[in-house]
């Protein structure tokens, strides 16, 4: 006689609550998957500088190569998040990680620009793992510590540090084709751990087809396609998040090349200096999520935005010489940002961006926990598309305007528009809160 199959208890949101070790497994393995995906994106940040000399890439080609993973990742984020809600985040994460492995191997075999672009576009599909992991963590994390859990997940951007530290050494010792193979074993290991130890989140749609459930599903009307789009309020918060996410990702990819060109550093030294931007960014995301668990940090983004704006204002100044005709003769002033000052501003800005990302993602969860697939997926989609636009804007400043710091000027203008939008929205919404 077969034992009766036990039907899980479903909460008000249609999700089976997580108990025991499942939350811990999700919180630990999901950031590792995020870190490996992000590390695979930043391969071009390090290798691209070497490939420019070895294969004769131009600045525009290099910018397009950097932008390709972010652009395709932005396009894939929302559909993959919705797919994760339907079939389970763990399954989508495993599928995307399995996709990245052959692409990394193909990247090591590439020798012409077209193949690199195709590999970069394929790596961008790994954003499906990021979006699915966000849905996965939001579904199974402890609700009292959701901000901390989401902050730990977002801190997977620290995977860029792995690229910055190891890839120059691997490339110098064995040649650049060996560098992409570095991630094959860790990706395979994390995929295996997810398959063995992580459970699928059980939604109401995935429960056994009991008589009551069949009647409920048969009576449920089909949703029009317009209802799959996020509501306007989600677009507003996703727009705010997209600046911090997109600007951070784009700068993480662009900084090694910028430091090599502007300060005449070696690739290894430039990559290590760039760590001082990504590390505070990852730690700031954990801090922002943890703080948002304790109180409503809805207004925190104003302070974070002001801090980032000040840093961008100073970073936007190019080297210049000014001659002033004084009463007792001419005075000459010269400004040149030293490397130490540049990196210090980057560290402060990275920390502020991390706090902004962590607190805003917690705010998205707090207001749309029952719809994180659409809310979080849209935030990652807009952030990925914005990040894909930035390398092209940076190269426009370098090649067409002739000012290397024009990229920081563009970020300053984008943040100003974002803050004006927040101010307008705060004044027009009932109660004056945004």
Automatic annotation (TrEMBL):
Chief location category: membrane
The protein's matches in Gene3D superfamilies, at most eight in alphabetical order, are given as: MFS general substrate transporter like domains
Output this protein's name.
MFS transporter
InterPro entries recorded: MFS, MFS_trans_sf, NO3_transporter
Q: Which organism is it from?
A: Billgrantia campisalis
Membrane-topology descriptor? Multi-pass membrane protein
The similarity annotation says: Belongs to the major facilitator superfamily. Nitrate/nitrite porter (TC 2.A.1.8) family.
Subcellular location(s): the record lists: Membrane
- Pfam families noted in UniProt: MFS_1
What UniProt keywords are attached to this protein's entry?
A: Membrane, Transmembrane, Transmembrane helix
Q: Where are the transmembrane segments?
A: 24-48, 60-84, 91-107, 113-138, 150-170, 182-198, 238-264, 270-288, 300-317, 337-356, 377-395, 401-424
